[in-house]
Amino acid sequence: MDLAHALKVALETGTVRLGLNESRASVEDQKARLLIVSRTCPDADLVRERRVGHVPIYHYEGTSVELGQACGRPYRSARSRS
């Protein structure tokens, strides 16, 4: 399963929070199971917060704009799946 298909399935079937602030809130609430961050995402804070929440991080090779487009969103985004 490629990432684009996995993102589509997650968006259709699961709870997905979009954006850096929503992703941080999901980590803080210990609801996040996975973070997907683009190579342009300022993820130093997310990495630190992930250690607290023990959430795995997937580093997407594209930009935040490309990640948003892969999820069917026309804007930059970070992702968390809870």
In words, what does this structure look like?
The protein is α+β, with helices and mostly antiparallel strands and 82 residues long. It has a single domain (3-81), classed as 60s Ribosomal Protein L30, Chain: A (2-Layer Sandwich). The protein has 4 helices and 4 strands. It has helices spanning 3-13, 20-28, 44-53, 64-70, and strands at residues 16-18, 34-38, 57-60, 79-81. Strands 1-4-2-3 form a 4-stranded mixed β-sheet. The model has no long low-confidence stretch (mean pLDDT 77). Pfam families: Ribosomal_L7Ae.
Task: Map the helices and strands.
Layout: H1 3-13, E1 16-18, H2 20-28, E2 34-38, H3 44-53, E3 57-60, H4 64-70, E4 79-81
Parallel strand pairs: 2-3
Antiparallel strand pairs: 1-4, 2-4
Helix pairs in contact: 2-3
Domain Ribosomal protein eL8/eL30/eS12/Gadd45: 3-76
InterPro entries: Ribosomal_eL30-like_sf, Ribosomal_eL8/eL30/eS12/Gad45
Keywords: Ribonucleoprotein, Ribosomal protein
